[in-house]
Amino acid sequence: MTGSIGKPRSERATAACRWLTERIAAVAKPGSGRRPEVWAAVEAASSGFLTTLARWERTGEEADFAAVRDRADDVVRAWRQVAA
User: Fold this and answer.
1) Closest CA to 82 of 43, 25, 41
2) What pLDDT is stored for residue 6 in this prediction?
3) Distance between CA 5 and CA 17 in Å, rounded?
4) Phi-psi category of residue 2: left, alpha or beta, with phi > 0 → left and psi -120 to 50 → alpha
5) Mean pLDDT computed over every residue of the chain
6) What distance in Å separates the CA atoms of residue 35 and residue 10, rounded to the nearest whole number?
7) End-to-end CA separation in angstroms for the chain
8) What pLDDT is attached to residue 8?
9) Distances, alpha carbon 63 to alpha carbons 53, 59, 60, in Å
10) CA-CA distance, 59 to 9, in Å (whole number)?
């Protein structure tokens, strides 16, 4: 994720969500987001991402933003497993 350094955290958080959405779209099967069982399979990873993102929005710490990227990787991994 590039181009968001120097912007307010709320804008960086929005950019992180867009970046994650693009990564998910690259691995998810079309239409899979309409299936409740898919959302159940990715819920834990998604929740972890959102919790970590909220923590980073509060703290602004770079270590917390690194954790946001790690949790995003978890989310993409979960979507990839569902698509397999």
Assistant:
1) 41
2) 65
3) 15
4) beta
5) 91
6) 30
7) 25
8) 83
9) 11, 10, 9
10) 10
Per-residue model confidence as pLDDT tens digits over 29-50: 999 989 999 999 999 999 999 9
Give me the phi and psi of 6, to 5 degrees please.
90, -10
Per-residue DSSP letters for the chain?
--S-TTS-HHHHHHHHHHHHHHHHHHHSPTTGGG-HHHHHHHHHHHHHHHHHHHHHHHH--HHHHHHHHHHHHHHHHHHHHHH-
Q: Provide the token pair at 16.
A: 């992180």
39: its two tokens: 């959302």
Segments of the chain with pLDDT less than 50: 2-3
Residue 2 near residue 58, CB atoms below 8 Å: no
